[in-house]
Amino acid sequence: MTHKLLTDHPGKAELMLGNEAIARGAIEAGLCVGATYPGTPSSEISLHLFQISQQTDLYFEYSTNEKVAMEVAAAAAASGVRSMCIMKHVGLNVAADPLMTLAYVGVKAGMVILTADDPLMFSSQNEQDNRYYALLSGLPMLEPSSIDEARAMTRYAFELSEQLKEPVILRTTTRINHSTGPVVLDHISPINKNAHFTKNPFRLVTIPSVSRDLHVQLLQNMKQAANLSELSSWNISSGSGQWGIICNGVSYNYVKDAISDLDIDTKTRVFRVGFSHPLPETKIQAFLKACHKVLIVEEGEPWLETQVKAIAQEAGLTLSIKGKAEHLFSRLFEYDPAMVRSVIATYFDIPDQQTDVPDLSDLPEIPGRPPNLCAGCGHRATFYAVKQVAKTMDVEVIYPTDIGCYTLGVLPPLNMADYLICMGSSVGTSCGFSKVLDKKTVAFIGDSTFFHSGIPGLINAVFNQHQFTLVILDNGTTAMTGHQPHPGVDMTLWNLEGFTQISIEKLVRAIGVPHVSVIRPYQVKKSIEALKEAFEFKGVSVVIAQEPCALINKKRKKRAFQVTDRCKNHRVCINELACPAFYIENDQLNINPAQCIGCAVCAQICPENAIIPVKESSS
Amino acid sequence: MKTTRLIIVAVGGQGNLLSSRVLGEAAVAANIHIGMSEIHGMAQRGGVVESALVFGDAASTIISDGEADVLLGFEPSETLRALKKCHSRSCVVTNMQPLPPFTVSIGKGNYPDLNQVTELIKQKTDRLYALNATELARQAGNMLSVNIVLLGALTATNILPLTKEQMQDAIRKTVKKAFVDINLKAFEFGEQAITDRG
């Protein structure tokens, strides 16, 4: 069946998720090469493009990390075919190295860098504002406010990139990526696959003498970009009156709704920046001149605010320009319509809309529903085994962890996470912890994260002879972001050809790790023995815990377990495993057969051997 | 056109996102502007999934606390938790079949009393429609059609600018072919549960 985003029906309105609209925009632009490392909230863009690549001439890959993804896309664009790389905001940190100098080198065909910010950190470790990457690199940036704009801007980004001969940053936030709205389709351009690379080392090889010229070129390109920004229809000025509001992205929606709710449309003018780097300074200057006072509405850092204030200073304007301030906007978290309306009312000194919110102070305490590792998750079994070994150690064990489902091990009763900063940090920080502390360091990293950025840390550990144990939690997929592939995955299981699976064990051995073992975490006793040996080893030891993700293990035959009357309510299973298949009824432990996948870990740790498989006939 | 704001709360796996999709498709077919947003990062790991649907002229795709006109809850304790999204004129439609969070299942937390849940919702909002959508889904032939039973109930309240026929068409368009009949039946059951009450 043809992929739903390939419908060539210009003018047709379809309901799309923001990420679908972005993928559609890229397809309409005739995207030829795409690359990504998955990361919420950007992941669905890649999911669709990868699926589409099975049906068209589009080449799309899951790269080992964002830096590689950007380099793949850069080479394609340097060879004259349209390319795109897709990542979450923190992914751009990983790709920042190519980004900064790619801006010098520029591109031949259109290249788009999608970065998805996550204000409020729904699924991220920080809420950095990636608009600063546009300022830092000098690259042009586009920011959509609606789903339809997300499609149209993605499409336009390729044209802009070709006009400027620079990659274009397309910056979204979660509420664009994960909002759904009507999108009007445009026609799909054919893919130009005619790649051609013209050797020009004194333009493309960034030795100092070349880069000095390239930096001059970049400044010229930025000037041209500023001219285009002045003329761009993505920078919208509307309304009339002496109250001014300058905004971007989703804040524009909240501003529009607030102006309508507060009935101040005759008093207020709005400037929405969509082509936001470089800013259209002349247009903004004219806007400021028409205003008595101005409010800047932008989630995140005062990125617009500082620049708008500088523009006002240049023009000798002294009107009040405010944004991030006490009683006005915060640099924290995401905005919402009522909050934006309230700040607008405060700033322009008018009454806010009355609300009639019920008093909820007498609501009973509602039990929380934190996410949990799935029933039968192999990570839980590994954590349990590690904990048993840690109990036998005469020193405290600290657990640097990493980014993936297993980060949920931080929650009780597992408590298996002590330090985390970024992808791959488990390994690098273990080098540091083990050097300065008189403790045992045991690090956790997932298979995909290991390929992404764990390997250099491990090489460092071997070279510098650090002393810690790295547990690689190998579930055969990038589970957290939606089960994307990585280099350790056997792609034939997904009926996909043209991939070479890389063995983590061979890789680890090749690095020269002196103690390597592989465990199957469902085998509790054997796992504990192997982990104990690894922990006692003086030097770097690696334990690879192999158990396919319980959500996608197609091979496994489910056989649920049950609790028999031998149970004496020790509750070791619940207290130490906390598998969500357990429940208590009439003070008696039970296993929900619909959730149990039959991993049998609880059966192995029960002191009364009270947990046994459900008999086929009785199930 | 008047803006109607709907919040849907569910536990991961209850099919909230499909129900949002059905409502979205029905709105597009009815030529009503719709903006929706969802937070579903941890859905498969037992977390709460929340969708916001804004029908009408508003540009926002999220709903602030105290501004939802309708709250559709797939699970009673989650409906209660989401009450902060409502104002005193809000209408609440909720499934009454509990799915206790894990902490409660293992005896480390208390699930609120169901009578207290309905009393509180009635007190704080304008109207409550409570039904056992899980049981109705079972009767319709598929436990997984709880989401569509609740859409039937929601449609029967007439609070959204969508007709029964538009909703049924959207179900046909959105749901996998093999499940269309069961889901249409589930929709009817949910609708009847409300209309029978008069």
Keywords:
heterodimer, A: 619 residues, alpha/beta, Rossmann fold, 4 domains, five-stranded mixed beta sheet, 21 helices, globular, B: 198 residues, Pyruvate-ferredoxin Oxidoreductase, domain 3, six-stranded mixed beta sheet, 8 helices, 6 strands, 22% strand
Textual characterization of the structure:
The complex is a heterodimer of chains A (619) and B (198). By secondary structure, chain A is α/β, with parallel strands linked by helices. Chain A folds into four domains: 4-231, Thiamin diphosphate (ThDP)-binding fold, Pyr/PP domains (Rossmann fold), CATH 3.40.50; 236-347, 3-Layer(aba) Sandwich (Rossmann fold); 378-546, Rossmann fold; 561-613, Alpha-Beta Plaits (2-Layer Sandwich), CATH 3.30.70.20. In chain A, 37% of the residues lie in helices and 18% in strands. Chain A has 21 helices and 23 strands. In chain A, the strands form six sheets. Chain A has a seven-stranded mixed beta sheet. In chain A, strands 9-11-10-13-14 form a five-stranded mixed beta sheet, with helices on both faces. The longest helix of chain A has 24 residues, at 208-231. Chain A is globular. The two termini of chain A are 38 Å apart. With 198 residues, chain B is an alpha/beta fold. Chain B has one domain: 3-Layer(aba) Sandwich (Pyruvate-ferredoxin Oxidoreductase, domain 3). Chain B has eight helices and six strands. Chain B has helices spanning 16-29, 76-81, 102-105, 114-124, 133-140, 146-156, 164-174, 180-195, and strands at residues 4-11, 34-39, 48-55, 68-73, 86-95, 127-131. Chain B has a six-stranded mixed beta sheet with strand order 2-3-1-4-5-6, with helices on both faces. In chain B, helix 2 links the parallel strand 4 (68-73) and strand 5. Chains A and B meet through strand 1, strand 8, helix 11, helix 14 and strand 21 of A and helix 1, strand 2, helix 2, strand 5 and helix 3 of B.
